[in-house]
Specification:
The protein is of the alpha/beta class. It has helices spanning about 15-30, 40-50, 65-75, 90-95, 105-120; strands spanning about 5-10, 30-35, 55, 80-85, 130-135, 135-140. About 40% of the residues lie in helices and about 20% in strands. It starts with 6 loop residues before the first strand and ends with a strand.
Length: about 140
Amino acid sequence: MDYSDLHILIVEDEPKIAALLADYLHQQGGFSTSHLSRGDEVLGWVQSHSPDLILLDLMLPGMDGIEVCKQVRAQSAVPIIMIMARVFSRDQLMNEMYPDYRIVSDRAVDTHIKNLRKKLTDAGAGKDLVESVYGLGYRYAGS
């Protein structure tokens, strides 16, 4: 499939990881990509370029990924996928997603993961890229 009309913003401070992501997205789906390495550059870039998806690292110079996500979400509905080397517990995810402590079923994370898995399958990922980690949560299972 060719997704060359879709543009993905990669926000990653490790140049090798960013290059790997960009190469994979281009080779596997023809996606066009842009790369930023600092969190404090993202909001202005999103406002002027309107990407179709953001791949956002958690640990960034300038501003961490959680704060970047909050600022982007306040102004845009662009889909954001957090990429990180950490595994979060369900409680940690819920506290970050809903800081106002609203009553939300902890099944909400499972629903989001189910939808993410479906989108990855529809995009031609070919395998399940989100692994369940018993007792902890989920992790990215790509190479």
